[in-house]
Structure formats: C-alpha cells, structure tokens
Design goal:
Elements: H1 2-33, E1 37-46, E2 50-57, E3 60-67, E4 76-79, E5 82-90, E6 95-103, E7 106-107, E8 125-129, H2 147-152, H3 154-157, E9 161-175, E10 178-184, E11 195-199, E12 208-220, E13 226-240
Parallel strand pairs: 3-6, 11-13
Antiparallel strand pairs: 1-2, 1-4, 2-3, 4-7, 5-6, 5-8, 9-10, 9-12, 10-11, 12-13
C-alpha cells in the first residue's frame, strides 16, 4: 500500500513538471509577440536611398519606409518600432504621403528587441513628426510659460534656455543616444500642443515634469526626425508622480 502511494506521488509530480515545462515556451512566445509588428507586403517602390513598402498590418493598409533593400510583394515581414511622418514628400520618387512610417529595420523573422537607430534621412526629404493630443490639463501659475507660448513666440525663445512644465505623454528611450520625451500642458492647437525634449533623464508617462533647456528651431536629426521646435539636452528639475 505504501509503495502504491509513493508511485502515485511520483506520477503527480512528473505530470506537474511536464506542465511547467510546456508552459515556458508559450510564455516566451507571448513576450516576443508583444515586441514586434507583422506586415504583409502588397506593393514596393524602390527609391535611390529608401525602399517604400505598402503593406497590411492588422487589417489596415499603411506605407512604410526603410533603408533600401530587396523586398517583394507577398512577403511577410516584421519590425519593432516606427516613426510616423505626416505630409511627407519624397523627392526621389516624387510622391507625397499623408502618413508614412519610417522603420529602423525589417526582418523576415520576428524581432524581439529594438534595433539601434541607423542611417540618415537625406536632406531632400521633408516631413513633420506626428503627435496626438492627450488632452491634459495643468493649472499654470500666473506668468508661467506654456507650450502655446513657446510655439507662438518660437523666434524669441530660439537658442535660449528656459523652464517648461508639462505632463509626459510619450517617451522613446535611447534613440540616437537620447531619451525623447513628449510633454503637453493643455495649451496650443493645430498641432502646436506637443513639445519634444531630448534628455538623458528617465521619466514616466503620466508624470508632471519640469525641464530646463535650450530651444532649437527647424531641427533635422536625419532618419526622419524633423522638428519645428525642440528643447535639446534638457535637465530634469522636478518630476511629480501621477496619482
């Protein structure tokens, strides 16, 4: 009787370990799936510097651009992240895209981590980084500078150091060696409501921050990063955790 009990315990333990082993690959696969995007190519236009790809992603058609390489219609490709550009005109193929997504790297197999930024966008390309209005609200002190003020008087603030307070709505970490922080304060309109700040500081989306830095106008970093106004190499003075 005792031997039977021991055999039953061993059998149950073996089944449990087998289940645990079987669950591990599924968990890893789920993590990888959340890290990359999958597209199916329907059209390819080759330019002198870039390959322009019309593809379907999750049932939606979109245009993407990547450094020139061989891509064929019907292929299934993967990428990690992309930078959207609105009203983008490519002189090399003489075409304007309402929205096009610049991709650092594409692969025929799933990409499980963000590739390093590489390549530069030729000066013949023009576009503006797109931003979404997060509809934040901040009670500004009397006389306190707002994002609307910065855009309205950008020539006055150009190459000058100042402080600005806002809510972090987006962060792109370690792109071209910098953290790219987008802040909004509920002011501004017609696309002039989002201020991009480059910094080495780490901040969290949703937190209220105060940065100090210099404003640069018409900045083109290459690789699709063109900004009408941008605060560069800013120092973080304060970060209030969102409740």
């Amino acid at each position: 009787m005792k031997s039977i009990k021991i055999l039953m315990i061993v059998a149950v333990a073996t089944m449990f370990l087998a289940c645990v082993r079987n669950k591990k690959p599924a968990m890893v696969q789920s993590q990888n799936q959340s890290a990359f995007n999958m597209i199916k190519v329907s059209e390819v236009i080759q330019g002198g510097t870039y390959t322009y790809i019309n593809a379907t992603e999750n049932g939606t058609k979109k245009w993407l651009a990547v450094s020139k390489q061989a891509v064929n219609p019907g292929e299934v490709l993967y990428y990690y992240d992309a930078l959207p550009m609105e009203d983008f005109h490519s002189k090399e193929i003489d075409r304007t895209f309402d929205v096009i997504y610049f991709v650092n790297q594409i692969s025929k197999t799933p990409v499980d981590q963000q590739p390093a930024m590489s390549g530069e966008m030729p000066s013949s390309h023009q576009g503006k980084v797109a931003a979404d209005d997060a509809e934040v609200e901040i009670n500004k002190e009397e006389g306190e500078l707002s994002i609307a003020d910065v855009f309205a008087n950008k020539a006055e603030y150009s190459n000058k150091e100042f402080e600005i307070r806002g809510v972090v709505v987006k962060v792109n970490e370690q792109v071209m060696g910098k953290n790219w922080v987008h802040i909004q304060d509920g002011t501004g309109s017609s696309g002039n409501f989002d201020l991009t700040i480059t910094t080495q500081e780490n901040v969290k989306v949703g937190n209220q921050v105060i940065f100090k830095g210099k404003l640069t106008l018409e900045k083109d970093f290459g690789a699709g990063y063109f900004y009408e106004v941008i605060m560069e190499d800013a120092a973080l003075l304060n970060e209030a955790v969102a409740l």
